[in-house]
Amino acid sequence: MEENKKKPSPKMSTAIVDSLCNIPLFDRLNGQELSVLGKYINIIEVNPGEYVFREGDRGDYICFVEEGALDVMKRASAGGSAIIATLTKGRSVGEMSVIDNFPRSATIRARTKATLLTLTRSRFDLILEQEPTIGVKILKGIARLLSQNLRRTSSQLADYMGPLT
């Protein structure tokens, strides 16, 4: 996976900001804040079957699906792996990697050709330092997203376990 290293043109920057508007994690940011955030974002493209990252890899960036679909795969204790989710436009993956230094908790593989917006931990740290109001809003968005994921996982676990009669 290669990052697009071109300097963003004004047209590209506008496209990035338009894309950021569709990502729930950024729903608390206003237009000006989204424009500032757009300066920290990279664009990458992946082909069907290409791995974005693998479970256990060092994580240092978050991905936002601009176009296409990604499969989230988790290793099974019995061997092999299972697709636990498919992410489409507006969804994100790797949120924990900009917060902690732990290895990736799942493998992400492109189901279709996909365009991803990425934010690295180092650029996120710059946002926190240089644009603290935006950084706090993003942190709250990440916390909200992780909380929703934990609630959903807890509910699925309860359904799987059944009643404790």
Keywords:
165 residues; four-stranded antiparallel sheet; alpha+beta; disordered N terminus; Jelly Rolls
CATH level-3 fold name: Jelly Rolls
Q: What is the helix/strand order? A: HHEEEEEEEEHH
Side-by-side strand order of the widest sheet: 1-8-3-6
Query: How would you sum up the global shape?
Result: globular
Summing up helix and strand content along with how strands pair, one would put the structural category as alpha+beta
Helical content class: 25-40%
Largest sheet: 4 strands, antiparallel
Count of discrete structural domains: 1
DSSP strand (E) fraction? Answer: 15-25%
The name of the CATH superfamily reads: Jelly Rolls
Determine the oligomeric state from the structure.
single chain
Mean pLDDT: 87
Q: For the terminal residues, how far apart are their CA atoms?
A: 50 Å
Secondary structure elements and their pairing?
Elements: H1 10-20, H2 31-38, E1 42-46, E2 51-53, E3 61-67, E4 70-75, E5 81-87, E6 92-93, E7 107-110, E8 114-120, H3 121-130, H4 132-161
Antiparallel strand pairs: 1-8, 2-7, 3-6, 3-8, 4-5, 4-7
Summarize the structure.
The chain has 165 residues and is of the alpha+beta class. It has a single domain, classed as Jelly Rolls, CATH 2.60.120.10.
Describe the structure.
Residues 2-10 have low confidence and may be disordered. Strand 4 and strand 5 form a beta hairpin. It is built from four helices and eight strands, in the order ααββββββββαα. The protein is globular and about 50 Å long. It has a single domain, classed as Jelly Rolls. A four-stranded antiparallel sheet has the order 1-8-3-6. The chain has a four-stranded antiparallel sheet with strand order 2-7-4-5, with no helix packed on it. Helix 1 crosses helix 2 (31-38). With 165 residues, the protein is α+β, with helices and mostly antiparallel strands.
